[in-house]
Amino acid sequence: MSDAPLVEVEDLHVRFHTRTGVIEAVRGLSFSLGREKLGVVGESGSGKSMTGRAILGLVPPPGEVTAARLAFAGQDLLRLDDAGMRAIRGRRISMVLQDPKFSLNPVMRVGDQVAEAYRQHHRANRTDARARAIAMLEQVRIRDARRVYDLYPHEVSGGMGQRIMIAMMLIPEPDVIIADEPTSALDVTVQMQVLAILDDLVTQRGMGLVFISHDLALVGSFCDRVVVMYGGRAMETLAARDLAGASHPYTRGLLSCLPSLDKPVAALPTLVRDPAWMGR
Predict the structure, then answer these.
(1) Is residue 2 pLDDT above 60, yes or no?
(2) Which of 90, 184, 215, 272 has the lowest tally of Cβ within 10 angstroms?
């Protein structure tokens, strides 16, 4: 298996030109992704989701994406035309969104949506696509997948809906998954089940995973490496196992704000932000 990175991001900027000026959503971000689980963590508005959308070419107007390098498997994503991006988006890189209620078509059976994702990228008839979709639903640990196939989105729970979304994104057999807070709307038990599914599938298939979250503790326990973002910038990148010994004051501040059952305190500290972190 090649050690070459799947995704390369160097000096990424995402700007929005508005009537009141230019908003910098991402400011000079750089990282690479191999066949690993990379956590991207930070507060709301730090640029996490916009980074994932920039990789897939999904930044809406009036957004502008520039980078010294933005590549997938050696291909320059910024130079690809629409047809070239469509060949990568979904087929080679998939994105799992936060809430299935807003991602699944409410008037279409969930199984047909998974099968459609397969037919979009593979030559298959309806019968073969249905069989492949049922097998994929079983792979994400949905019991009685044949029955679930014929349900509508409003008939499934949040946890099952998220599993269906994961099945839909995995069925084209991509090399990279960008998971944008896929467990934030789930209770803790279901959250762990969904993470276990992602972990197994990434490990078995040798994929790369970008796991976007605001939960530093969760990312630290689940991912291999962590990028900590603030104000559109990467404050630091480190191995998840070294998170407790993070050097940047922002990361240390986030960690100190986490409650601990072992060492309860009367009041949690307030994160102090330094304007210098934003750079120029």
Answers:
(1) no
(2) 272
> Quick one: fold of 7-259?
Rossmann fold (3.40.50)
Q: pLDDT per residue over 74-119, tens digit each?
A: 999 999 998 999 889 988 999 988 776 678 899 999 999 999 999 9
DSSP reduced 3-state for 117: helix
Find the helix or strand (DSSP H, E) in which 54 lies. helix 48-55
Residue carrying structure tokens 């060492």: 263
C-alpha to C-alpha distance for 197 and 204, rounded to whole angstroms: 11
- Please tell me the distance from the alpha carbon of residue 108 to that of residue 204, in angstroms, as a whole number: 30
Closest CA to 222 of 212, 234, 232: 212
What residue type is 178 in one-letter code? I
Alpha carbon distance 111, 137 (integer Å): 8
Residue 75 to residues 7, 71, 88, Cα–Cα distance (Å) = 9, 5, 10
Q: Give the helix/strand (H/E) hosting 250.
A: helix 249-256
Please state the domain extents for the chain: 7-259
| Strand extents, DSSP E, 59-150 | 63-66, 69-72, 75-76, 93-96
Residue 60 has phi, psi (to 5 degrees) of -75, 155
> What are the pLDDT digits (tens) for 180-200?
988 776 778 778 888 888 888
